[in-house]
Amino acid sequence: MHKLGVLLKTDEDFDDEVPHHYENLFAREKTSGPERLIIAPSTDHIRILLDLAAAWESNYWLLYVLLNSWIGNEPGRYQSPWPLDYEEVQKFLGEFGNYLASDARHHFWIGSTQQKALLVYDRHDVIYAYGPLDAYEARLVQRGLRIGQVRFPAPHSHCFNAENNEFERKILFCWNWIQSPLKDGQD
């Protein structure tokens, strides 16, 4: 199962899909707000999220952004109902990490309750990192990632795997999430 696919051209049409793997790159990006990193690992997205979040000295909040439900759940933003410590984040990602990494029906955020630090695991299989960028870069280099331009494949597909339907149900019922609607343009 994969989250992002590349469409291959066959006989004048795009109809074959293969998993897309980035080349272990990261780059700084300017935004209309704070500068951030875009991180495009080939594997181990969940371990990288945990490693980067460990750089913070705070508690955490999680946000699960369900964009498309395959089993009739309401798309929306689902925020953890209380601050979490690092061990609770590890436990949550131990249970749901494979689902988050193998399906594009969602985004997933980890935020600090005490710092301006945020990690966004996007449906395009990249991580956006805000906060202590120098500390993040050092950790990424230790993991073998290198600076380079991150490009999304074109054309590409977002993969929704029926095998993950049970995990969609479980993640929404693991807590009494604080739910809010999707914001305009959030896809």
Largest sheet: 9 strands, mixed
Number of domains: 1
- Average pLDDT works out at 91
Number of strands: 12
Strand order of the largest sheet: 10-3-4-9-8-7-5-6-12
Broad shape: globular
Portion of residues in beta strands equals 25-35%
**SSE order, one letter for each helix or strand:** EEEEHEEHEEEHEEHE
Helix percentage: 10-25%
Structural class per helix/strand content?
alpha+beta
Describe the structure.
- Helices cover about 25% and strands about 30% of the residues.
- The protein has four helices and twelve strands; from the N terminus they run ββββαββαβββαββαβ.
- It has helices at about 45-55, 85-100, 135-140, 165-175; strands at about 5-10, 15-20, 25-30, 35-40, 60-65, 75-80, 105-110, 120, 125-130, 145, 155-160, 180.
- The chain has a nine-stranded mixed β-sheet, covered by helices on one side. Strands 2-1-11 form a three-stranded antiparallel β-sheet, with no helix packed on it.
- β7 (about 105-110) and β8 form a beta hairpin.
- About 30% of the residues are buried.
